[in-house]
């Protein structure tokens, strides 16, 4: 059972994270300091560092939560599903249930605004891509275990994760560039790109008509 002290620590962490994201998305990442975040919550800089290694850690904390949510969703997919379908369904489930992950901290719209900050801030984008590579390793092991394979000996789990991650990275970039920053737009773009994946890999390429 969670103790009063643990609940207080969780509330402090969420308050710091909420303020950090609000400042990053309204003022800018580079223009926001750790002191700004701590002062807005009414705690010391030292308290901030009890919960986060630095600004970068705070900026990517929700991203880490959503990735963990996605990996758990892959683990929970029915065992009869082919690996690519399991990934597809898990990522769509992730978009459909995003509010369950982030809204204890910030509204979904604020989280989506943070995506744009990450894309436009080189230091955050580099960290995001580094963490994405780490998540790919975890996902590779999950798929291998799910299929009863040895990821070190069988390249298929890693190959599929690499292709899938490439599709998701393209989706992030295109969504950030096109200007329709809604969750529905991100989900629709994800579906569109995943539906193109099979034909793009195995078939001829007729003229492309954007829907």
Describe the fold and architecture.
The chain is mainly α. 76% of the residues lie in helices and 0% in strands. The protein is built from 11 helices and no strands. The longest helix is centred in the middle third of the chain and has 26 residues, at 122-147. The N and C termini lie far apart (51 Å). The model has no long low-confidence stretch (mean pLDDT 91).
What does the average pLDDT come to?
91
Q: What structural class do you assign from the helix and strand content?
A: mainly alpha
How many strands, which pairing sense, and closed or not: the largest β-sheet? none
SS strand fraction: under 5%
Count the E strands.
Answer: 0
The portion of residues assigned to helices is over 70%
Q: Write the element-wise H/E pattern from the N-terminal end onward.
A: HHHHHHHHHHH
* Radius of gyration over C-alpha positions, nearest whole angstrom: 19 Å
Shape: globular
Would you identify the regions where 5 or more consecutive residues have pLDDT less than 50?
Answer: none
Number of DSSP helices? Answer: 11
